[in-house]
Amino acid sequence: MAQAYRVRSRIARLIVRGLFAAIFRVRHDGTLPARGPLLVVANHQGWADGFLLAASFPLSADVRLLGDREGTGKVWWWRAVLRTVGIVIPIERASASADRAAITTTLAALEGGAIVVVFAEGRVSRVESSLGPFARGVGYLALRSGAPILPVWLSGTAELYLRKELVTIAGAPTKGATRTLALSLNDDLARLEPSERAPDPAHKRMRWLTNLF
């Protein structure tokens, strides 16, 4: 099944790459790695963002997109392509349990060496050169997975027309930011430890309570 998924993914991404090259002018600045684990954080300006990014990575890369189920299923051919390929990890924003399932699936994909794309704003801006505040999920995924983070800026996708230039601008993968954040949170928590505590009694009654709660 995994082999079949890889074949479908490569074929679909190759087709999308060809279509985009025929309709638009696609340019890449920086390097998009062929291997994970890697958490890609990108801005989200239009419907083409996910297709552009998935097609831009080397075909040998195992690329997944973390996306809103309602948004990715809005247009019939999006549903057809994405369901056939299985590249999207869907999020049900209305369901907390489904959201947790998406996080579990994402962490498992990263552990397996995948490249997972996250549009951290959690919405489509439809405005060129616009970046909204990030949802909290991306920070959680970064800290839990420990995967390097690759920032990628997408340009030109807010409004599309024939021969429009679409650009991916990749930064450098880094683990330093998440490690620094984790250490900072650790220090903040450690500072709350009380300097004194009540002494333990000589005889501790009902110690079975420890395993009750």
Write structural notes for this entry:
With 213 residues, the protein is of the alpha/beta class. It is built from seven helices and seven strands; from the N terminus they run αββαβααβαβαββα. It has helices spanning 2-23, 48-56, 69-72, 76-85, 96-111, 137-145, 176-190, and strands at 25-29, 38-42, 63-68, 88-91, 115-119, 149-155, 165-170. A seven-stranded mixed beta sheet has the order 1-7-6-2-5-3-4, with helices on both faces. Helix 1 (2-23) crosses helix 2 and helix 5 runs parallel beside helix 6. It is elongated, with a radius of gyration of 21 Å. The model has no long low-confidence stretch (mean pLDDT 83).
SSE diagram, text form:
Blueprint lengths: L1 H22 L1 E5 L8 E5 L5 H9 L6 E6 H4 L3 H10 L2 E4 L4 H16 L3 E5 L17 H9 L3 E7 L9 E6 L5 H15 L23
Parallel strand pairs: 1-7, 2-5, 2-6, 3-4, 3-5
Antiparallel strand pairs: 6-7
Give a short synopsis of this structure:
The protein is of the alpha/beta class and 213 residues long. Helices cover 40% and strands 18% of the residues.
- Which regions contain 5 or more consecutive residues with pLDDT less than 50? none
H/E element sequence: HEEHEHHEHEHEEH
Q: Overall 3D geometry? A: elongated
**What's the number of extended β-strand segments?**
7
Number of helices, where a helix is a run of at least 4 consecutive DSSP H or I residues: 7
- Helicity range of the residues? 25-40%
Approximately how much beta-strand content do the residues carry? 15-25%
Largest sheet: 7 strands, mixed
Instruction: Give the strand line-up of the largest sheet.
Output: 1-7-6-2-5-3-4
Q: What Rg, in angstroms, do the CA atoms define?
A: 21 Å
Arithmetic mean of pLDDT: 83
Distance between the termini: 42 Å
Assign the structural class, choosing from mainly alpha, mainly beta, alpha/beta, alpha+beta, or little secondary structure: alpha/beta
